[in-house]
Design a protein that fits this description.
heterodimer, A: alpha/beta, Rossmann fold, five-stranded antiparallel beta sheet, B: 228 residues, mainly alpha, MetI-like fold
Chain lengths: 258, 228
């Protein structure tokens, strides 16, 4: 992967910066039907600039991201971002999503269809930056994700890749403290994915924004060079370096490629 | 043709539509998104005037607003006069009578709004009120136009409620459809024809405005969105 190789020194640099502090602590328990054993019951902490929730479909990955974003309320849950409690069911604490300062690109995230690309990105910027500054911020984000030429276009005219670029520009516009990505690169070809990832990494390492992403794709995990949390049936199976915790999957993948 | 009745009708429809939008926008938003157990009951109640004969509605309003009930007596004390047989009384009747025509298109429109777009807006820092005003409402714009046109036209055409509640006082409660009825009673078919034709053309144009709009929306999208 082109982008991963080039960014490695920078990633290592920010790693030392983050190592001391826990970025996010989460304890989540949730059952979808009353009286069942919890479908999700886990406990994890993020300490790396990029962490990945890896697991098969239905392992609870998206639910975990939505819980961190504040888009759903698990039955029992305690989530703290850099020591600040976002959700704590025991103390009845729940910070609403718009006050969390978390960037989130969901699997089905869409651009607002009734307005231009620029409007979409300005919408992201203006809740954080005032007046002139928010226009500047929007322009800067579009440029960063190589989408400035799309500014006056309308969402339904964009290709998949272009839409993804604008989505990322819009998500980063309010300068989130944490970025959550739910299978953001699904449906994009490898070259496009690499190019997008490179743009994203440029921003993330510059602004020191940690990421928690979700995937069921082993090759993506290795491309990201991230701390991996392996999920199975709503439980944490393992956490650590991809080469260690996914050694088995890696072998399978390599064998398949031969 | 009775121009005074026409102007009164337009004023009645305009006031009614404004009040209806103010009530039905938040109500429809709640109906579209709520998982509350009372939601079906509220929705049924709001749709009731669809099936209720207008004369039934007019009759109950006449009784309720009159001196026979405690509520009516309180109203008379506060206002100094009964609400029935006044323009304000007609507004109350029209709001109830046209209620479903404003609420139902809006509920359908809000239900069709992509929930993900609303969540995305919240994650970008938009408060629930901003999400409603800047994302949900523009995305439901065709429904908003439909609700406005239907509420307005339905009020223009009402007859039973007006007759029961307002009577036939020129300049106060004599609406265009009552004037039409009067023309026929007086065998003045030429005048009746003018009024009826005008109402028919008016209704057709209103419906045309509703059915033409999805294309207009797409056209404006194609010319490139405008900023803020």
């Amino acid at each position: 992967m082109r982008g991963g190789e080039a960014q490695r020194p920078e990633a290592a640099l920010s790693e030392t910066r983050f190592q001391s502090a826990t970025i996010l602590k989460a304890r989540i328990q949730h059952s979808f039907a009353a009286g069942d054993t919890p479908a999700i019951d886990l406990n994890f902490a993020l300490t790396s600039p990029w962490s990945v929730l890896f697991g098969p479909s239905g392992a609870g990955k998206s639910t975990i991201l939505r819980a961190i974003a504040g888009l759903m309320r698990p039955q029992a849950c305690r989530i703290a971002l850099r020591g600040e409690l976002l959700t704590d069911t025991a103390q009845n604490i729940f910070i609403p999503p718009h006050k969390r300062g978390i960037g989130y690109v969901g699997q089905r995230s869409v651009l607002f269809p009734h307005r231009s690309v620029l409007y979409n990105v300005v919408f992201g910027a203006e809740h954080k930056f005032g007046g002139r500054e928010c226009l500047e911020r929007a322009g800067e984000m579009l440029q960063l994700f190589h989408a400035d030429h799309l500014a006056s276009r309308v969402p339904h005219e964009l290709s998949n890749g272009e839409t993804q670029r604008v989505l990322l520009a819009r998500t980063m516009a309010p300068a989130p403290r944490l970025l959550l990505l739910d299978e953001p690169f699904t449906g994009l070809d490898t070259a496009l994915r690499a190019a997008l990832l490179e743009d994203l990494r440029t921003y993330l390492s510059r602004e020191n924004v940690p990421v928690l992403s979700v995937t069921h794709d082993v090759s993506e995990v290795f491309a990201l060079d991230a701390d991996v949390i392996v999920l199975n049936a709503g439980r944490v199976k393992d956490q650590g370096d991809a080469r260690v915790v996914l050694a088995e999957e890696r072998e399978t993948l390599l064998r398949a490629l031969q | 043709m009775d121009v005074q009745a026409l102007l009164l009708t337009l004023r009645l429809a305009a006031v009614t539509t404004l009040i209806l939008l103010a009530i039905s926008l938040p109500l429809a938003w709640w109906l579209a998104r709520s998982t509350s157990r009372v939601r079906p009951a509220v929705e049924a109640l709001s749709a009731l005037p669809l099936l209720l004969p207008p004369t039934v509605l007019g009759f109950y309003l006449l009784v309720m607003l009159g001196p026979e009930t405690a509520f009516g007596r309180m109203l008379i004390t506060v206002l100094g006069h009964p609400l029935a047989f006044t323009f304000s009384g007609l507004v109350v009747g029209s709001v109830l009578y046209s209620f479903p025509f404003a609420v139902q298109p809006l509920v359908a429109g809000f239900r069709a709004v992509n929930t993900t777009a609303l969540e995305d807006a919240a994650m970008l820092g938009a408060t629930p009120a901003q999400v409603f005003r800047r994302v949900a409402l523009p995305m439901a714009r065709p429904a908003l136009i439909t609700a406005t046109v239907l509420a307005f036209m339905h009020t223009v055409g009402e007859f039973g409620v007006v007759l029961m509640l307002g009577g036939n006082i020129p300049g106060a409660t004599r609406t265009i459809s009552i004037a039409l009825y009067d023309s026929v009673q007086e065998f003045d078919y030429a005048s009746a024809n003018h009024t009826a034709l005008l109402l028919m053309v008016f209704s057709f144009l209103a419906l045309l405005a509703i059915y033409i709009q999805p294309n207009a929306w797409r056209r404006s999208a194609k010319t490139g969105g405008r900023l803020v």
